[in-house]
Amino acid sequence: MMSRVWMVAGRDFRATVGSKGFVIGFLLTPVLITALVIVAPRIVNSRSPQIQGEVAVIDRSGSVLAGLRESLSPATIAARRASADKRRASGQGAPRGVPIPVLSVVERSASAEVQQEKAWLIQEKSDLPRHLALIVIATDAIVREAGKPEYGTYELYVSRGLDDATESTIHESLRQALVAARLETKGLDPGEVEATMQVVRPNAVIVAAAGDQAAQRGFRRLLPFICGVLLFVGIFTGGQVLMTSMIEEKSSRVVEVLLAAVAPLELMWGKLIAQLGVCLLILAVYTGVGLLALVQLATIGLIEPMLLVYLVVFFLIAYLIFGAMMLAIGAAVNQLADTQTLMGPIMLLLLAPYMLTGIVGQAPNSALSVALSFVPPVNTFVMLARVASDSPPPVWQVGLAALIGLATAAIVLWFAAKIFRIGLLMHGKPPNFATMIRWARMA
Amino acid sequence: MEAALEIRGITKTFGTTKAIDDLHLVVPRGATYGLIGPSGAGKTTTIRMILSILFPDSGTLSVLGKTSALEAKDRIGYLPEERGVYRKMRVDAFLSYIGRLKGGVPGKVEARAGQLMTRLGLADALKKKCEELSKGMLQRVQFVAAIVNSPDLLILDEPFGGLDPLSVRLLKELIAEEHQRGATILFSTHVMAHAEELCEQVVMIHKGRKVLDEPLAGLRRQYDTSTIHLEPLHGTANLMSLKALPGVARVRLTDDGCEVGLAPGTDPAAAMRAVATAVAPARIELARVRLEDVFIRLVTDSRATDDSKQALRTHLQGLGGEGVLA
Asked: Model confidence over A234-245: pLDDT tens digits?
């Protein structure tokens, strides 16, 4: 029996790995991800046109205009962005690479009527210079009114079509000018205050038997999510190929030729093993590339070897559960379009835990995280996310989750095998879940 | 001698439909059996149960001495009615894969596949992808896949469907060769002529029940209809006058002449002489029993009207059952 299973697996593995679609997808996916994450934003931003135009200012406080002129100058904007890049974590500032706008300040009378001035912003697209924004600085923006706990602020009116980056730049410039004016009013040097506020935050150093190593909190926080992505991509890719190849074999009627040579169960296992091989290949290459990058960055110590073992274990369990489900659906329907209604609940089961991995990684030992670790089929994702987190769970919990996962896989495989055997030979109206349950009873 | 196939009272139900009802069948080793019946009679379901693709609700099977075909798959060749190939796979790789799945020895499988393909005039197709072949060529490839492992039991489900006459003849030769080699052959068809030409024994299934299991020779004797086919020499001959002859029960006009039905107990030889004397014949012969006639007799009771019998006959002929027992 086993030799036939391996023969089926071998053929299907070669057929998948040797197909142009696989080679292109396999090589293209990492390239696309890299492009999306790193290259695309740069290209998009670098091609943004440089904004030039006028900003009208009604300074009712009477002491911001000069500072605002300075803070809206291209040199100051450039310096601010450089500083923001250093503290990227704050999430402030315009995106990197966006051309620095050239904004000239047009002073308006402090007593000007806002309603009238707003009309200045309405102009034809071809009119130059462009009227970009109107800023109205409150009277008490620099000196608080007596009895008021807060400073006054400003109003910002912008023309139609002003991009978010420029608007954000104006806000930043205003903030800088207002804070500087307030400090100067109190006799403080804004540069000194800025320097006083800055505390360089170094990376923590992990002290371990193997030696000290710089901790990368960001990466550690991301690790559960990365594991979730690997699991999701592997299972979804494998399951999808399993389902489509099964539909193809059924619709081309080659399946009955195969059933003359192998038992349905042998065919099912052969197919599962073949795609498992394909998925492990993808997983190994992607994980390998990731590890190589960590070695290059001298941060390989961030990955516990046991995490890789758990990744494989929970991937195997999740693959068996979802792969068997998708294979059974492939065997039950006659064409890809028929899978839509049946795949809905399965996609939900697959997406929900994948989305949870980020949350679980943040609070790996919360009551919800612990409870979900034992609820199949989400427990495979959840437990892997916990294992990859900063506070891994006790080993007994990992073992129990794996056992529950294995038991679930056994039940799903048993059920899927029954649907597989009957569904393979069924043609005509596509089945629903009730029909599939009836088949399982029939088999 | 141990039977190649033994079916004991199998029953299979799909939902509320009883596809097979208490079927018993014994096929001796080396025999050629025809499983016949109209579409939907239960032939394919029976074959699928023999192959353990489906399992009976009750009853037992024995295939090549094993209690399940799963234990003897390597010794069974099967050409399903719904057959296909891996479109992107090369023909030689496909045949090698199927042969090896059935326990074929690497090297030998490929050599036999090559021989058979050459025999079927498809040697050039071996290196091509399956999707590059015509439908007729693919059907021949599929037949090769069924016999590439020199099976002890060859099961063919509607093997000649959609084939051109030349391919049908080639396949019949190959089936005969497999039979001579010692293989037991069970094939299902609704084309009665093929069964009549190839089978030693005929098993008829109707609505899941076996209605006939007889050797062809015995059938001929048992169901002899005593009908004379007459094609007159002159188109103007009064064929209805034959009704007046002694021993003639009925006369039915056909496109090229008439069918003369004889009354029970009438000597066919004397009747033929009398008919030939009354109307000069261009051709006269004693009709042999047609499987469709046997089938109609078996599945309709004596009270059935001629119209209902004719409707069933038309149905069978529509399926291609126009054969005459050879």
From this structure: 888 888 888 988
